[in-house]
């Protein structure tokens, strides 16, 4: 499936696509590269540039906390750039045990117009690959500004990686004034204080508030989306809530309770941990994409039925009419068949 680069609004197709890239970020470097660019056994996703960032060893030798074992990749083709951050390889209690000190955004990013404070640990996680240990910032800027290209910039991440993706989006907007086409995160924790969250959401980026470009997917009782706790921290962006059935819906306390009860009935003791996995997000979002295509398939079926009816009612009797009238009717049916093919093609092109 390819992303829809022609929309700035939320797209289930794009949510599924970027969630899939987030899952690839958990793979070892060479495997991830093969999945993205292609190799002898895999066609890839149509990208020709790939840069891997791993601050693991560097971070261990520095003052960074062990959680800042940041891994990410930046990939690009002629049309887009994707910056994708990996989350934690094992979901532990990192979300509540990590350093929760807040740091001033303007000071940390050297961005005078930034307001409020950012979670120190998540900010340090981006620092570990930003200008040291790989210089992600330079790679992104070079791809973004490459002569003769007009690439759209997307940023994505899961779990810890979702927080790192958010800090990256803020820096690229506040500091480098880059236009961001979209940010898609799954299972994101909170990372800004209320002032910084409000400033991020209202920040104009290419004429649009960042809130309207940032789509934060939350799966029912996903435990990581609840930390760090309010009121010291607030979420940013537009929440895309997946209910207990995996359908995009409106978050409600009742749905979360029912989700927990359903999990218990299935023998799952900690619903919030299961809801946090990338595989659950991808499974639900893929079904949402399929569901969104059903009307198009129904239209194709209906159009096909009409074409057959027209053929029976109009073409068959042609042996009793003159050739000119029969030819007119044949052309009409042919046009209808072409419409069927086009509708079916549009409905199925992403699968």
Automatic annotation (TrEMBL):
Question: CDD domains from the xrefs?
Answer: Lipase_3
Q: Name one GO biological process term.
A: lipid metabolic process
Origin superkingdom: Eukaryota
List, for all copies, the residue spans of the domain called Fungal lipase-type. 83-229
A Pfam family matched by this chain, by name?
A: Lipase_3
Q: Which PANTHER family match?
A: ALPHA/BETA-HYDROLASES SUPERFAMILY PROTEIN, FUNGAL LIPASE-LIKE DOMAIN-CONTAINING PROTEIN
The protein's name: Lipase
